[in-house]
Amino acid sequence: MRSAAAKPRVGRVVAPVVGGLLRAGVTPDAITFLGTLGAVASAVLLIGTGRLWWGAVAVTFFVLLDMLDGALARARGGGSVFGAVLDSVGDRAADAAIFGALIWWFSGPGDNRLIVLLALLCLVLGVLTSYIKARAEGVGLTCDVGIVERTERLILVLAGAGFAGLGVPYALHVGLWLLLAGSAVTVVQRGVAVRRQSRALAGPPSPAAP
Fold first, then answer.
1. Which residue in 24, 30, 68, 140 is deepest, having the highest Cβ count within 10 Å?
2. Is residue 1 over pLDDT 50?
């Protein structure tokens, strides 16, 4: 919800960059692909090997490219259906790589089973959050509610990982616990929203026959 409210301000900040990319002939799909590949590689090669601070910094850089592909598409007169699908798939791939890398590291040399459990639960709830929205929109409903969207999810996990990499005690624990609670609430919020809309579309129940 806050992500959508921040988009106009973000758009003004990235406008000069978008103009340069537009003049250079760069396509939105190329930006999406580069951002996804960079985020996945950073998560696997840095977070997955225990270099949490640098991993968080690198992933954040590539995730910020996600601000550019949509703005670039609008500057070119609108995006394509393929571009929208590619962007969504790229987001899911990057998210999976981040949490998968945490699970990999802390199930091995990092040796923290609680982090493994928290990261796994956050990954599952993140998938559910996105799936509920996609499935709702697929049947003509809207589902933009929720206290934790993708931006908040990334802030919590990357900030937690980054501070943990700097030696701040329990930073990743706190970030994942907050994310777990917020994601659980968001799943419930979206389920309730879809239920209400489906009931409204169905209309009042028919009177019983005499």
1. 68
2. no
